[in-house]
Amino acid sequence: MGQLKLRVDTSKLRVETITKYATVTCNDPKNPQVRLNFGGKVRQIARLNPVTLNLKGLAGSDLRASLNVTPGTEISFEVIEATPLRRQFEVIDTVTLADGNSFRIDIGSRPALVPGALRDTLQLTLACSDGEIRTTTIPVTINHMAPISVVPRGNVVFQRRDTDRLKNPTGPPVQRGLYPRDPPRWGGSAQTQGRHLQVA
User: Fold this and answer.
1) Taking the CB of residue 116, how many other CB atoms lie within 10 A of it?
2) CA atoms 75, 81, 82, 84: torsion sign
3) What letter would DSSP give residue 29?
4) Helix, coil or strand: residue 182
5) Which of 32, 113, 124, 165 shows the greatest Cβ crowding within 10 Å of its Cβ?
6) E strand or H helix at 141
7) End-to-end CA distance of the chain
8) Is the pLDDT of residue 148 over 90?
9) Angle at 43 between CA 71 and CA 15, to 5 degrees
10) Helix, strand or coil, per DSSP, at residue 28
11) Which residues have CB under 8 Å from 81's CB, separation 6+?
């Protein structure tokens, strides 16, 4: 007879139900190895909605997002600090909701001159009613999008299988599209620098 102890780090778990496996070696010649299955349920003191934050919008505009933090157990808490670990965004406000036990965290990112995507982490520090100070983290993605995207991306390439259709004078034209992400804010014109292409 023996005893097996299993320790699981739950600090980064995003699910409630977990399953772990262990293989035990013993001196039984008929069955020297035994595979054990362990199941459990992790109760989150703080429920996060959403579990990841996505700041997304056009480059040059302010980006905003909100996180709701509600109790997941009988332990109540207060959000005493909300910090961006890499300083890629800022915490605008921490609001206590009407029930007194839930909170809303408002975050934002300042306008970016150059399109691009960044990743950061929001860390929350909670003062819990059982006397413990606990922290939890939420992944944050900041996506400053270009106002105009080209399909296909990069160079506009016409393959031979495309241009072969031009041998038929009554055939359809070969086209590539230029699509704005935000049509109400986009306007202008396009032109070519040669006589072999036309802009429709």
Assistant:
1) 11
2) negative
3) S
4) coil
5) 124
6) strand 133-145
7) 81
8) no
9) 105
10) coil
11) 123, 124, 125
- Express the helix, strand and coil content of the chain in percent, nearest 5 each: 5, 45, 50
> Which pLDDT score is estimated for 178?
60
Domain ranges of the chain: 46-145, 148-185
Count of residues making up the chain: 200
> What is the longest distance spanned by two Cα atoms in the chain?
87
The answer for residues whose C-beta is within 8 angstroms of residue 68's C-beta and 6 or more apart is 48, 49, 97, 102, 103, 104, 105
CATH class of the structural domain 46-145:
mainly beta
Token look-up 């007194």 returns 100
DSSP string, 66-123: EEEEEESSS--EEEEEEEESS-SSEEEEEEE-TTSS-EEEEEEE---SS-EEEEEEEE
Q: What is the pLDDT of residue 190?
A: 56
Supply 170's token pair: 């009554």
Q: Which residue has the tokens 């620098």?
A: 193
Comparing CA positions, the residue from 111, 133, 113, 112 lying closest to residue 124 is 133
pLDDT digits (tens, 9 = 90+) for 29-87: 888 898 888 888 888 889 999 999 999 998 889 999 999 999 999 999 999 999 999 99
Per-residue pLDDT at 6: 76
- Which residue is it, tokens 């139900």? 17
Q: Are strands 17-25 and 33-41 parallel, antiparallel or unpaired?
A: antiparallel
- Alpha-carbon Rg of the chain, whole angstroms? 28
